[in-house]
Design brief:
By secondary structure, this protein is of the alpha/beta class. The chain contains twelve helices and 21 strands. Helix content is 27%, strand content 22%. The strands form five sheets. An eight-stranded parallel β-sheet has the order 12-8-7-6-5-2-1-13. A six-stranded antiparallel β-sheet has the order 14-15-16-21-18-19, covered by helices on one side. The chain has a three-stranded mixed β-sheet with strand order 9-11-10. α7 links the parallel β6 and β7.
Length: 418
Amino acid sequence: MRRPTSKMTVLTKALAAIALMAASTNAAGQVGDPIPIPDPNTVRPSQDPTRTHNGLAMAPPMGWNSWNRFACDINEELIRKTADSIVTSGMKDAGYEYVVIDDCWHGSRDANGFITADPVKFPSGIKALADYIHAKGLKFGIYSDAGRKTCGGRPGSQGYEFQDALQYARWGVDYLKYDWCNTGVRNAEEAYALMSDALRATGRPIVFSLCEWGDNQPWLWAQRIGNLWRTTGDITDKWAGKHGHSWGLTNIIDMHEPLWPYAKPGNWNDPDMLEVGNPGLTETENRSHFSLWALMAAPLIAGNDVANMDAATRSILLNKEVIAVDQDRLGVQGRRVRDDGDSEVWVKPLANGGRAIVLFNRAKTPARIAFGNEELNFPATLRAKVRDLWAHRDLGSWKGSYSATVAPHGVVMLRLDP
């Protein structure tokens, strides 16, 4: 096993990479001023007073990622076809903008240490693929890992952070998902701060997605390092339970919900990518999945086969009324306000003073679920209009309470606007 990179080695490589940037032509634009790397013996990156937020992802990111449906079975034809379908299906108009290649795109490093693309899977190269996606009016994302190797065994970024960031900027990358496999004894905060600094040093705005599964509680330290951080292990398209290294939908929800105080514009708790449209969930369960991700202000990163999705999947992913709840500019993560066993009430405050509500039935039989002003923190005299976001119809004026019969594993999602 290779020993962890020393602090002096990291600094030496960082300075060398910055010098290389100054001498390089960056197709993405001019390189910004290098960001100093704080000495971890004197100050933690999260406590460094000179570190500021990058100003990106002020609403939860929306897009598509290759992993949930295709894993390592990817190539440039698939990614181009998916980008085409995001446009023609209406997903782009609904707000999905990032097309992210996950693991297994990597080839080897060249003689100078720069990462290259797999020449069989991506014969035209990553820059050509990014240009194609940008020409569609979309943004391009890529994947790497803070370890020596990625989870799929491809070259990781440990020891090459500044070189990899420079390569991404040259290619036109807009979003980086950064994983946590094969990291040995690395400190997560230091590792992610180093890549954050490398991305900023390129001068290109790149959304930074931390994917260390919540093991190191990134919600406590990542606010000025990245834009979103995973709160749980991997999701899978199952209703409940642990399946290998992955978790079912309801387990992810329960692990994620208590972290609601840490979300805000530019910083999002990430319960992992969407499984909507993948075979393990029913249409009703997919609707529940999408509703709760929206209520929790989660990134909406689709993970299905967009080019071949059916009408039911399209109707869920393109529900603009539900998407508007997720993208609400107040940026508050909704939470569970009542738990009656299998019957739950969830509420999210909205920028206009209204509320989004999800009535969630975990049971295998229908349930009658009710809520009132006390769950909403509404004054008794407040007047509001009620709308069902899946039926797409107005339900009249708010009268202080409401109840509905909710299907097994289903939701009723409402919006109350003063």
